[in-house]
Please model this.
Amino acid sequence: MKLKFNSEVEGAAKNNQPIVALESTIISHGLPYPDNLEVAKSLEEAVRDTGAIPATIAILGGEVHIGLNKEALVMLADPNSRIEKASRRDIPHLLASGGNGATTVAATMLLAQRAGISVFATGGIGGVHRGAETSFDISADLPELARTNMCVVCAGPKAILDIGLTMEVLETSGVPVIGYQCDEIPAFWSRNGSGVEVPLRLDRPGDIASLLHQKWQAGLEGGVLVANPVPASAEIPAAELKAAINAALQQAEQKGVRGKAVTPFLLDYIRTDTSGRSLAANKALVLNNARLAAEIAMAYHRQK
Model:
């Protein structure tokens, strides 16, 4: 699989600079236009301002792009562009057909590792959906975390999921889950409310970098999940979100929404139900994650 690096990422690799991977599904499917374009640019700037180099990843014209130019970001953000939501299973088809795909957490992890990148910032990971005991709806993000050497910085699993079962699957898969300066797994838009204790709390990016170094040096394959709570100024208390989430899940069931359409549907419903507050929280948390990921990447780079 050929990787196409933009000049900034290529220069960073040659000059041995830390690089942070960024997904593209948040641009094409996670946020409305023009907020998605604004966030895409802000994420890259947040990584640069913290001292690392951003590498937004996507599949364009059947080629894997590691780092995007401004024109590519605009195309991904345009609601009239036909951009597929690309997970691991979709990559072969997009490469063979010359298609355009915005990479999910799972696909971004895989492609970032192929590019030699070790740290990735996203909003929230996918996981075990509520009712998965009958639907078997479990995100490809979880098995990817189990097999791909990547530090994934997020604001916890998306609040629409069964967070407790998501943590159980990660434990079974041997994935270390770190709470950054927190004792409870954050619930995406909420700092608390999951009711799930973090397996390990670390308060400094350097400590997280040391764990990464020791894990992979020991040959312990697979990812590490860092749960970074949404900034307090932007959070929506979990109690307020409960009714909106339940209503969104009910609507999705009634409308027969399935597969990879579920998460965008639920997020859009909740955004409307909260009068845009969930969108503001989403922007704040993903920028917060990008900054922390850059700090971890720089600390890990110094230990390699």
